[in-house]
Design goal:
1 helix, Immunoglobulin-like, single chain, 8 strands, three-stranded antiparallel beta sheet, 152 residues, alpha+beta, five-stranded mixed beta sheet
């Protein structure tokens, strides 16, 4: 007797967004050779005529789902679309929700950062230090050059 297990989505799962991947395992049944799977989503009339057909063992994607609570049912059926006796089916319920976008509040001067005034002062100190080093270097070079002249 065939068996079916829905791996994803899980029962009572909350899914962010409007896309889901349906993953399932079937036992003692080869989808495509022994028959196929009927899929119902939010359909209270689980009849063969209202089902979507899954004809491979691969994951199945659903897109553009409305936000809210959903019920999905998979049933393994014979190639002639006749149900097994007893029926081989499983259902799960899940909810799709819009992802929440975090709210970011920016402050002109965060408390943990130096103020622009302090940063400005540090830039001045660094610039003045560099200028002093350059001027001292020029003076030393000038004096060294003068001393070379007197030695000759």
């Amino acid at each position: 007797m065939p068996q079916i297990k829905i791996i994803s989505p899980t029962d009572n799962q909350t899914i962010l967004g409007d896309k889901i991947t349906i993953s399932f395992i079937v036992g003692d049944f080869s989808v495509g050779q022994d028959g196929y799977l009927n899929l119902w989503l939010d359909n209270p009339k689980e009849e063969a005529s209202t089902a979507a057909k899954i004809t491979s063992q691969f994951d199945y994607n659903l897109m553009d789902l409305p936000m809210g609570l959903h019920k999905m049912t998979l049933e393994a059926v014979k190639s002639n679309n006749i149900s097994f006796s007893p029926k081989v089916k499983q259902s799960v319920s899940f909810t799709t929700v819009l992802p929440q976008v975090p709210t970011i509040t920016l402050s002109p001067t965060p408390n943990n950062m130096p103020s622009l005034g302090n940063l400005y002062n540090w830039q001045h100190i660094l610039l003045l230090t560099a200028l002093v080093i350059i001027v001292v270097g020029c003076i030393i070079k000038f004096i060294w050059g003068r001393s070379q002249i007197w030695e000759n």
